[in-house]
Amino acid sequence: MAVEKDPSLAPLAEQHLKAKAEKQQSPFAAGGAATLNARGASSMLGPALAALPSSSKPPWLRQRAPQGERYTELFSQMRELKLATVCEEAQCPNIGECWNGGM
Hints:
This protein is mainly alpha-helical. It has helices at residues 10-23, 38-42, 69-80, 86-89, 95-99.
C-alpha cells in the first residue's frame, strides 16, 4: 500500500524545518557550517496546494447527507442524552443507512 503525499501539510512542514534549521547545523556541509535547507525539504511533501486543480466531485461520487425518520429519531436521542457514538466520531459515511435499519 503506497502512502500518498498530503500537500496541505507542506506549509506546516516548512515552518517546522525552518525552526529546526536555525538550531541545527548540517554535518554534511563543508566544515559543518551550512544550515539545512527548509525549502528543499518541503518540496519532498508534494506540490503546493495552489497547484492542485479545484474540481468538484461527480454526482455519483458525492455522499448524500444521512436522512430518514429513524435516523432523525436516533440522532435527537443521542443529543438529548449528550452521547456520541463511534459512528459519529469516525464520521462513518454509512451512518444513515445503519441508523435507518438498512432501509
